[in-house]
Amino acid sequence: MSRHFTLDLQRRHDMLQAVYEALANAAEHAYPDTSEVSTATMDLHVDYDATTDVLQVSVCDHGQWDAPVEDPRQRRDRGIPLMHALADTHIESGSTGTQVRRQWHCLRIYSVGR
């Protein structure tokens, strides 16, 4: 990322953490039946719009949402609030899977060859 964007270390870590959380949530919650692991897939899409200076990263799974465990000793459920805190986050879920889109604005891109 540092080759293409002018980001301080904290912002770079925030971006990586938000993407990691989306991937981890898809792996843990979309495919709870371990017998289907060989068919479990996720898609990662990255798009940068130089006109608006917006980077969008989407993680899409093709599974079914696994509801969080109600046992308070096992309750974690911090991934989605963390993603919202780290980026402009939109989540769409349906019968064919879940898409988590994160956007970051004002990345101050400079030429790739630099």
Give structural notes.
This protein has about 110 residues and is α+β, with helices and mostly antiparallel strands. The protein has a single domain (about 10-105), classed as Histidine kinase-like ATPase, C-terminal domain (Heat Shock Protein 90), CATH 3.30.565. It has helices at about 10-30, 80-85; strands at about 40-50, 55-60, 90-95, 95-105. It has a four-stranded antiparallel beta sheet, covered by helices on one side. Helix 1 packs antiparallel against helix 2. The longest helix has 22 residues, at about 10-30. It is elongated.
CATH H-level homologous superfamily name: Histidine kinase-like ATPase, C-terminal domain
Question: Sheet with the most strands?
Answer: 4 strands, antiparallel
Rounded to the nearest angstrom, the radius of gyration is 16 Å
Q: Report the total helices.
A: 2
> Strand-residue fraction?
25-35%
Give the CA-CA distance, first to last residue. 13 Å
CATH architecture: 2-Layer Sandwich
- Strand numbers in spatial order across the main sheet: 1-2-4-3
CATH class category name:
Alpha Beta
Outline type = elongated
CATH topology group: Heat Shock Protein 90
Give me the strand/helix succession.
Answer: HEEHEE
Domain module tally: 1
Given the helix and strand composition, which structural class is it?
Answer: alpha+beta
**Unreliable runs:** 110-114
Please report the total strand number as a whole number.
Answer: 4
Query: How much helix, percentage-wise, in residues?
Result: 25-40%
**Mean pLDDT metric:** 79
Domain Histidine kinase/HSP90-like ATPase: 3-104
Organism: Antrihabitans stalagmiti
InterPro entries: HATPase_C_sf, HATPase_dom
GO molecular function: ATP binding
